Amino acid sequence: MRNTQTLPKLVQSSPKNLAQKAKKVLRQDLVNKLNYINFQDATVLLNFKHRQFKRTLSLVGKPAPCFDGKALIAWENPAGMPGKLQSFEFDHILLDDGLKLIRVEAEIEEINAQGLLLRLPEESLEIRSRSFRRHACQNIRVEFFQNSARFQGELIEFSPYFCKVKLTIEAPQTFAWIDTASPGYLVMFKNETVPFSSECTVVRQTRGEKNRTFVFKLIPHFSRRFPSKEFRSTRLNLTPTPEVVFTHPLTGKKIHLSIIEISGAGFSVEEDEKNSALLPGLMLHSAEVSLANTFSFKCRAQVVNRTEEETDDGKKYRFGIALLDMDIANHVRLESILQQASDKNTFCFNPVDMDSLWNFFFETGFIYPQKYASIQTRKEELRETYHKLYTQHPNIARHFIYQRGSTILGHMSTLRFYESTWLFHHHAASKKNATRAGIVVLNQMGRFVNDSRNLFSSHMKFAICYFRPANKFPNKIFGGVARHLNNLNKSSLDDFAYFHFNKEESRSEHALNNYDLEPTGKEDLTQLAWFYENESGGLLINALDLELETAFLDDLQQEYEKSGFSKSKHLFSLKKDGNLVAVILLNLTDLGLNLSDLTNCMHVFAIHPDDFPKEVVYATLSELLTRFNRKELPILLFPSSYAEEEEIPFEKIYSLWVLNLIYMDDYFRFLKRLFRGFQH
Fold first, then answer.
1. Taking a C-beta distance cutoff of 8 angstroms, is the pair 242, 262 a contact?
2. Which of 3.40.630, 3.20.20, 3.40.50, 3.90.320 would CATH assign to domain 491-660?
3. Which residues, including other chains, have CB under 8 Å from residue 249's CB and lie 6 or more apart?
4. Residues 87, 128 contacting (CB under 8 angstroms)
5. What is the pTM of this model?
């Protein structure tokens, strides 16, 4: 039964007034609508009026298939029927499609315990009673919070700005606890998920001691999923138009919408104002985006905003939808399509002609004679590594190429080398057009990071880059960003002394007497963090997985193995008489993942230099190379000043740049200021 307070006002108007306002529906069309309701297993509303008092009784009925001018409608709740109607007489049927009502003044031919048989009129009335379609819901549990009180119930229906909810109270609660003049908070549950929540106010309610129906006005303050960005992801209008398909989490109905604009971070769609079913804040736990029926991907997304637009077809709502997560391989494909749609000469993660790439590396001087001398004896192994990196698209790596015809003009790549840290490296450009090509691939890299960093599957919190301060271009960009920001929480620089250590050539005869070389423990990491904070205070500990939360994880090692690569990380502590002297981070990978072998080296942190003289350094390095059956490895010694003080010969200084990717806007702002032609 339904109280008349919950019905639209027009329903309670006189038939004469309705006839003046309403559109006529012929019997043939009415039969089609009843059959559609039957097909959908939906219901109609049967209204009866009291013979003595001005009271209306509303009952829910389920129409049977209708093939002539008669309609058989079964009671949804047949208990006690038709005895409950002794004081009532039939008045009319209401067909509600969520937007319009059809009032059918039929005649009863028969009524019994199962239902009633009605003779349909030649014409009925279609009432335009609502500005927005009301969408019926099932199996959506709700909780309404106000002033620390929680009320539970179910969602009946919703529209773009309102929702109808049935609440049930349990002692000692009373409905007097709900202050209709104050806002509350409504949370909707589907199984174990929360598809929607919103602040709201009470518009109206029915009477009832244990159960009441409330109409809430939604107050969606939700305007973004992630912190706002000055440099937003580039949004494109693609042809042919992409489409998104999803099952609406509140109605259970399948929705198909055309995508107006799309980027690597989200997309926008439009809905007709009257039929809109999206709500700002609505979670889409499983949506599928299709691009021209050639590429589709499933994703988790969220509606983040709604704006009104006037079009030739009437008023529309445009919704911004943010991507929350998706398969990382599919995101790579999406980025590749979008970046090439922006510039036909830019290629991201595409198959590469390996001869052209190697020629580019040598021609630009990126592989200079000394570097080639260190790798030439294992060139076949190097070719195999790069074939896998550039043709098989592993999840751990990305590459960006600026190319005209078959000629590569610029290149940059990145590697996920720590749990949430990506290494920028191999930045090179043709000498003929070095500045232009170098900036283009740098922009490609930045766009990829900006689109990807909020996706959980990207594991992207920090970007790092090793460069020589004497190399002007990276020092101008990466070093320049850190110096310009002048904020160690945003970006930091740390200098390492770099040298190759060969255990045979070193001829170290110093034994590690009174020293212990053992796996690093939690207390050692704490001391390392204190040492680094005092020495630098930057982001290195976080970015290189040297904090307790990430130091002993092996998830990334497994990801490398899935992609056909090898990677292992080892942490050792050197102690003297139980006191920590140094911490060594040893990374072992396939040859050439980084052509300077900075992914295949030791980071040595000299915590107590007084107990770590040069002879002990060499003895420690020799011991580790012996344990891992290595003859030679590059060494990065921190702080770099320690190498000078201990007169440890080194070949060059490498600066490690770290950027906290929360501050990508600062990075882009600096590049825009540095390069007048830079456009994100």
1. yes
2. 3.40.630
3. 190, 193, 195, 196, 282, 283, 284, 285
4. no
5. 0.81
**Residue type at position 148:** S
Q: Which amino acid is at 257?
A: L
Pick the residue with more confidence: 231 or 666? 666
Lowest mean pLDDT segment, chosen from 183-187, 209-213, 224-228 = 224-228
Question: Residue 511 phi/psi, 5° resolution?
Answer: -90, 155
CATH number of 135-219: 2.40.10.220
The residue written with tokens 């038709």 in the block is 82
DSSP character at residue 236: B
4-127 CATH pick, 2.40.37.10, 1.10.10.60, 2.30.110.10, 2.40.10.270: 2.30.110.10
Per-residue model confidence as pLDDT tens digits over 499-536:
999 988 766 666 788 899 999 999 999 999 999 999 99
Q: How many residues comprise the chain?
A: 680
- 241: Cβ–Cβ under 8 A, 6 or more apart, which residues? 258, 259
User: Does this chain's domain 135-219 share its CATH topology with 491-660?
Assistant: no
Number of H helices, E strands in the chain: 16, 34
**Mean pLDDT confidence for 451-461:** 92
Q: What are the φ and ψ backbone dihedral angles of 114, each rounded to 5 degrees?
A: -90, -30
Only one residue has tokens 């499609």, namely 97
Taking domain 243-326, whether its CATH number is 2.40.10.220 is answered by yes
What are the boundaries of each domain within the chain? 4-127, 135-219, 243-326, 491-660
d(CA 25, CA 11): 16
